[in-house]
Write a structure and sequence with these properties.
Layout: E1 4-10, E2 13-19, H1 25-32, E3 51-54, E4 57-60, E5 73-75, H2 88-95, H3 105-118, H4 124-130, H5 142-159
Parallel strand pairs: 1-5
Antiparallel strand pairs: 1-2, 3-4, 3-5
Helix pairs in contact: 2-5
The protein binds FE2/S2 (inorganic) cluster (2 copies).
One FE2/S2 (inorganic) cluster binds next to loops.
Length: about 160
């Protein structure tokens, strides 16, 4: 199968890659762009290890074909930190030991990031819903919930919003 050019924005940079049209976004990110933070756990849309933001929404990148992202904006785990500062979630995941082997962590972090972008005061149920597609075989999820609650509180405090806890 011939290759085609795909141009899109990833983590704030415009990129152009050449890939066969049946290659997934996950393949393009890891294989063409060397962004190996995004993990391949199942290649079938079941585990959430490959979650990235696509035009502001979390998606399983193994379920998106490369050509579908032409002209889009993608944010991967490598793009969560800004100006050399980790995103609060990246810190609180470490502080609460919200990972063990770490294989699910990039996808889990991006799903939690997507949640906090929309809602900086999520309930426990909302957090569980946000990570419902992210399978972790190590942690039991409690520390993840704690990490998200802690990061949400930090984000609210940084904004100086009312009702901080
Ligand atoms: S690798 Fe994409 S959902 Fe598992
Ligand atoms: S930390 Fe090992 S799969 Fe989640």
């Amino acid at each position: 199968m011939g290759e085609m050019n795909i141009e899109f924005n990833v983590n704030g940079k415009q990129v152009r890659v050449s890939a066969e049209p049946n290659k997934t976004l996950l393949y393009v990110l890891r294989g063409n762009l060397g962004l190996t933070g995004t993990k391949d756990g199942c290649s079938s849309g079941d585990c959430g290890a490959c979650v990235v933001m696509l035009d502001g929404r979390p998606v399983n990148s193994c379920m998106v074909l490369g050509p579908q992202v032409e002209g889009s904006s993608v944010v991967t785990i490598e793009g969560l930190a800004s100006n050399g500062e980790l995103h609060p979630l990246q810190r609180t995941f470490g502080e609460t030991w919200a990972f063990q082997c770490g294989f699910c962590t990039p996808g889990m972090l991006v799903s939690c990031y997507a949640l906090l972008e929309l809602n900086d005061h999520p309930s426990r149920e909302e957090i569980l819903t946000a990570i419902a597609g992210n399978f972790c075989r190590c942690t039991g999820y409690q520390a993840v919930i704690k990490a998200v609650e802690q990061a949400a509180a930090e984000l609210r405090a940084a904004k100086g919003g009312a009702g901080n806890d």
